[in-house]
Design a protein that fits this description.
alpha+beta, Pnp Oxidase, Chain A, 7-stranded antiparallel sheet, 5 helices, 40% strand
Length: 159
C-alpha cells in the first residue's frame, strides 16, 4: 500500500532548479517557470522538460516544437514568481522583463545565467505533465553564478 505522506515527503526531496521556459507559436511568445528539467544525454545533447498538459505553453511547444530554458540565478525568486502564473490570468509576463529572441524564436531572459535552446525530438504524454525531450541546438552563457533552487524559495512543487 502506498503511504501518501511518505510519497509526498520523499518526492519533495528531489532537488530542482528553477528556469524560465520561453516558448513561441508564430509571433506569439510566452514563458513559464519550469522546475522539472534535467539533462538526459551527452550525445546528442538532450534535456527533458516536463510541462503541464493544460497550459497554453504546452500547446505552444506542441505547435512550434521548440523551447528555450533560461537558467535563473540564486536571488531571482521574484523573476521565477513573475512567470509562475498562467498567461491567461496575468497577461504579458515579458512586459517588464528584458529578453531577446534566440535562434528558435523563443524568448530568452537577458538577466539570467544563460540558456539552452531546444528542438523537440520526442514527447511522452502520461499523467498531468508531458515529458518533452529537447535536443540542445543553441546555448549561451550570460555570466557566472549559482542557479536558483526550488528549495531555497520555500516553495514546493511536487509530491
Amino acid at each position: 500500500m502506498l503511504d501518501e505522506q511518505a510519497k509526498k515527503t520523499m518526492l519533495r526531496k528531489i532537488p530542482h532548479g528553477l528556469y524560465v521556459c520561453g516558448v513561441k507559436d508564430g509571433d506569439e511568445v510566452n514563458g513559464f517557470t519550469a522546475s522539472w528539467v534535467m539533462q538526459a544525454s551527452f550525445q546528442p545533447p538532450l534535456v527533458v522538460n516536463c510541462v503541464k498538459n493544460d497550459s497554453g505553453s504546452h500547446a505552444m511547444i506542441k505547435s512550434s516544437q521548440v523551447f528555450a530554458l533560461s537558467v535563473l540565478e540564486e536571488g531571482q525568486k521574484s523573476m521565477a514568481q513573475t512567470f509562475f502564473k498562467p498567461q491567461r490570468r496575468v497577461g504579458n509576463k515579458f512586459e517588464e522583463v528584458e529578453f531577446y529572441l534566440g535562434e528558435t524564436g523563443c524568448p530568452i531572459i537577458t538577466d539570467s545565467l544563460g540558456y539552452v535552446e531546444c528542438r523537440v525530438v520526442g514527447a511522452v504524454e502520461h499523467g498531468d505533465h508531458t515529458v518533452f525531450v529537447g535536443e540542445v541546438i543553441a546555448a549561451g552563457v550570460h555570466r557566472e553564478g549559482n542557479p536558483l533552487l526550488l528549495e531555497s524559495t520555500g516553495w514546493q512543487y511536487g509530491g
